[in-house]
Design a protein that fits this description.
250 residues; alpha+beta; Aminopeptidase; eleven-stranded mixed beta sheet; 6 helices; Acyl_CoA_acyltransferase; DUF5613
Length: 250
């Protein structure tokens, strides 16, 4: 796992422009998806440059009906108090993303006869979307429609392998995999509240560990989310971090 970095994480969306300082993702087909419409800094910008970038991104996003701004800062770069104060002043929400990894053979095997994990196909895609819609609901009805339509139209040919878990035949959780030459990334992992703490998530990850062998599993955890404590208990190792900021309803 020595060479794993945030560059191993799958990035959705279209690259609009790239230079030595940043990458600009702009995806007009899905304007409401934050991660597909954002700027990723390779080098830390000056405050003056960042303020100019806010103006430029605002113009670009409004042209394609994206109603948010979002920036990701370089890997393993801490933000000082001046930056944090400016981010708050500009009314951005500050988040911390942490990268974790585990060798699949180190993941404990979990089996439960009441829990079944399936790769999503034409027979299970509607169940997958019904679970996804519940997780997407806080972002608004328009986002639910846009993201659900994208999944329905692209799930057969897109870069992700999608899984769904059933508890006694009832849809309980979903999880996406991005499988490349060196790693298997867990993304979009969620278990419905009514099925949490019933072993659903552990059985899903155990299924993935077998599928991933011998490639390491990687995932992004919210630095302020209690879920990362679960990952550490399961044997995941912290690799790196980065800060990201979002401003909604521009």
């Amino acid at each position: 796992m020595a060479n794993i970095t945030l560059n191993n994480i799958f990035q959705p969306g279209n690259i609009y422009a790239e230079d030595e300082d940043k990458v600009i993702y702009l995806t007009p087909q899905i304007p409401l998806v934050f991660d597909a419409n954002k700027w990723v800094y390779k080098q830390m910008p000056s405050i003056k440059q960042w303020k100019a970038d806010i103006a430029t991104q605002t113009h670009m996003h409004k042209q394609q009906s994206s109603n948010h701004l979002t920036f990701t800062f370089p890997e393993n770069i801490e933000l000082d108090q001046q930056w944090i104060a400016l981010i708050n002043q500009e009314q951005f929400e500050l988040g911390l993303m942490e990268l974790y990894a585990i060798e699949p053979q180190n993941f404990k095997k979990y089996v439960d006869s009441e829990i079944e994990v399936k790769v999503v196909d034409e027979h299970t895609i509607d169940d997958y979307i019904s679970v996804h819609s519940q997780f997407a609901a806080p972002y608004g009805e328009e986002y639910v429609r846009e993201s659900s339509n994208m999944i329905k139209n692209q799930y057969i040919n897109d870069a992700k392998t999608r899984l769904i878990a059933y508890k006694q035949g009832v849809p309980a959780g979903i999880l996406d995999l991005v499988i490349d030459e060196t790693t298997v990334e867990i993304d979009g992992f969620g278990v419905l509240a009514c099925h949490q703490r019933q072993g659903v998530g552990s059985v899903m990850q155990s299924f993935v560990a077998e599928l991933a062998m011998p490639k390491p599993l990687i995932l992004i955890a919210d630095g302020e989310d209690s879920a990362k404590e679960m990952y550490v208990k399961q044997g995941y190792v912290f690799i790196s971090f980065c800060y990201h900021i979002v401003k909604e309803d521009i």
